[in-house]
Amino acid sequence: MTGAALGSPADGAAFGPRPGRSPSRRGVLAAGLWTALAGVGATACSSTSGAQSDPDGPVTFWSALRGTDTLVARWNATHPDDPVDYSPMTSGLAGGNAKISNAARAGNAPDIVTVVDADLPSFAIDGVCADVTDLVPPRLRTQLGPQAWTNGTLDGRVYGIPLDLGPMLLAYRTDILDAHRIDVPTTWGEFHDAARRLRRRSGIHLTTFHPNAYNVLAGHAMQSGGRWFAVEGDSWVVDFLDEPTRRVADYWQKLIDEDLLLVAPGSSQEWMSALARGRVAAHIVGPWGLAALASSVPGTSGRWRVAPLPQWDTGKPVLGTDGVSLHAITAGSPRKERAMRFLEWMSTTPEAITARLSSGRSSLFPAAVTQVEAASHQFKTDFYDGQDLYGLVTGQARLLRTGWTWGPRMQATATSLHNGLARLSYGTKITEALRTAQAETLPDMRSLGLKARQK
Amino acid sequence: MSTTTAPGKPRTTGAPSAPHTTAARSHSPRRQAVGVLLGPFTLLLFAVFLIPVLYAVRLSFFSETHTGLGFGNAHTTFVGLRNYAAVLADPSFVRGVGTTLLYALVFIPLVLAGALALALLFDSGLVRARQLSQTVLFVPHAVPGIIATVIWLYLYTPGISPVLDLLSKADLTVNFLGLSMLIPSLVNIALWSGLGYTAVIFFAALRAIPRELVEAAEVDGAGPVRTALMIKVPLIRSTLSTVAVFTTIATLQLFTEPMLLSRATPLVGPRYTPNMYIFDAAFTRNNYGLASAASVLLLVVCCALSYVVTRGTTRSTQRVPDPRKARS
């Protein structure tokens, strides 16, 4: 599974939404026309699957996740009387989100869509995702833990069925750390020391700061107890610079200022080449990213291992989430019960996860305990020296923090933040980028009519 | 530009054919001819300009709205000026306007002065192989903006650019996609594609100046520079201001070039210019109300600017006595 498949912002930055039409630079009238085009766009992007309104038709399913084809083929082979019609989709930022929104507006959205956790509030607010709280079967509810449900729940209601868990991990080069006699850090204090020593002894950067990875920064904020978007009564409280986030921002700023990190965009050539040449010794990412790393730098196979992410307080370990997927049933779907039956099968049965991961190129960590064993057989861990990754992640997933809420227009917030972080090398501080992103998020929320205030 | 040239066309092309096509069927052939000839234009004006504009204005006031947290309670209501307030309170929009103004401040004087200088050179006869050099200058304009930007991106990107390679061999490093070079890089692309086009317009206007005026100036002892600045330039003043309006409006709608640059450098964000802000609001943020409000604001500014410049131009051309009449 690639980062793009999971809607990783890192990939989104490289392959962002393409301009659908480019207006004539000289078009005097273009300003007015834009909005007309917007209206046209909403209807022009229609679904190819027909008979959307027939409750007995096949369940339609759009997904950008790799392995969905084999998954659906498996379901159709075992459930010939209840077929699912799957269409592949580009990932969220690469146009998938716009496609879903437009289809929903035009009334021809599929029954099920895959969305990234950060995009769920946006789709819920736009009325794309149905509130499925009362449709979730009790068995499914108990098979996924609170660490999973927190990603699919908004204001106490369920809008998405969690597929996987994303505890952040520290993948590191065993050979480099050994050669410079550096122990794997378990606290952020040790991490700072390790980065300092490694840089001094070898010139190698311990890890990379990706200015285009809001999800990683958010994951750090989650771990330290930050809360960017809070719900108080019927109003949103936005605070990107609360005390825990400020601590995280200052920490990473210090590492950057001391030149201990490579500052390079995720999925950039610069970063990939530094990884391949051993100029960077570690990578912080969720479970999905382990397979992506293995396929990005195959030449370093066998020299990596994965450790738990360092903690602020080892007595009270807690972890943030990086990039998980959910499956939402669309509000206009006439086949919600059947869609839920499919989702339950997909999210809980070993045969489903085996079918999904059968290509062996994904290290997705399923949310359901019943699927972990089957999943662990699919991803070969030669790259990580044969380490039992699923065993490690099972333990780490228990530390996941619950109760984080993403914003109602998270991709816009993310691009604001990325735009600010891109100026790090020109002297902009992480805290300034966060402040700007917050200032640019509020007008949008207010124009949607949401009650929003700053702390 | 299309709106200003379109009304002129039917009048000139239609004049000879009007009598015999309508005389047989109508009592007032003239009126009917006007209807037939202006009809398509009026129809298009309504279909592709006025109706979309009115729709945009409506969208900007009526918007999908939510209450409280907003989950599952979207409904369309009249929201008054809320979207306008949001646009104007958005630091990214204000910054986009600032960026565009800065760009305009650099680009417009450069393109006007550059094109005028080139046109005067052509007109003075100093340039050899005038036709050829004009064509060469004009060719970049025939290249679509997207292609032009792609070409320039290739030249701007370290590692693949032969220009940067050469410079680095001379121990010169220029980061065309760095923060301080963004506007110059954009201006460079726009100049490349716009200079020749503008120069051709100015040149055409210069050719329309009666030769005897220029000769008279020479007889009176004016040198070529003096003739150019004191005689020729004032005579094409209305062309100058018309081109200035169009250039300004095109500049306010800066989109293609920065949109492509935003793919190459994260320093150019998705809301870098007002037009990009509109695009981002509509298609990334799904906020058509916000996009419409920003569109209407941009349209109002463009219209106001055209009006001011057009008024200024007509008045100044009226005030300046026609030199041809004065001479004869």
Layout of strands and helices, then pairs:
The complex is a heterodimer of chains A (455) and B (328).
Chain A: H1 9-14, H2 30-44, E1 59-63, H3 68-78, E2 84-88, H4 96-106, E3 112-116, H5 120-125, H6 138-143, H7 146-152, E4 153-154, E5 157-158, E6 161-162, E7 169-173, H8 174-179, H9 188-202, E8 207-209, H10 214-224, E9 229-232, E10 235-238, H11 243-257, E11 261-263, H12 269-276, E12 282-285, H13 288-296, E13 304-308, E14 325-329, H14 336-348, H15 350-356, H16 369-376, H17 389-397, H18 410-421, H19 430-447, E15 452-454
Parallel strand pairs in A: 1-2, 1-3, 8-11, 10-15
Antiparallel strand pairs in A: 3-14, 4-5, 6-14, 7-12, 7-13, 9-10
Helix pairs in contact in A: 2-4, 3-15, 10-11, 14-15, 15-16, 16-17, 18-19
Chain B: H1 2-5, H2 8-14, H3 18-22, H4 29-61, E1 62-65, E2 75-78, H5 82-89, H6 91-124, H7 130-142, H8 145-156, H9 162-169, H10 182-207, H11 211-219, H12 224-235, H13 237-252, H14 256-264, H15 274-283, H16 288-319, H17 323-327
List keywords for this structure.
heterodimer; A: 455 residues; alpha/beta; D-Maltodextrin-Binding Protein, domain 2; 2 domains; 3-stranded antiparallel sheet; 42% helix; disordered N terminus; B: 328 residues; MetI-like fold; 2 strands
Can I get a quick summary?
With 455 residues, chain A is of the alpha/beta class. In chain A, 42% of the residues lie in helices and 13% in strands.
Structure description:
The complex is a heterodimer of chains A (455) and B (328). With 455 residues, chain A is an alpha/beta fold. Chain A folds into two domains: 4-16 and 34-165 and 323-378, 3-Layer(aba) Sandwich (D-Maltodextrin-Binding Protein, domain 2), CATH 3.40.190; 169-321 and 404-454, D-Maltodextrin-Binding Protein, domain 2, CATH 3.40.190.10. Helices cover 42% and strands 13% of the residues of chain A. Chain A has 19 helices and 15 strands. In chain A, helix 14 (336-348) packs across helix 15, helix 15 packs across helix 16 (369-376) and helix 16 (369-376) packs antiparallel against helix 17 (389-397). Chain A is globular. The relative contact order of chain A is 0.17. The model of chain A is unreliable at 1-51 (pLDDT under 50). With 328 residues, chain B is mostly helical. Chain B has a domain at 97-279 and 320-327: MetI-like (MetI-like fold, Orthogonal Bundle), CATH 1.10.3720.10. In chain B, 74% of the residues lie in helices and 2% in strands. Chain B has 17 helices and two strands. Chain B is globular, with a radius of gyration of 25 Å. Classes of the chains: A alpha/beta (455), B mainly alpha (328).
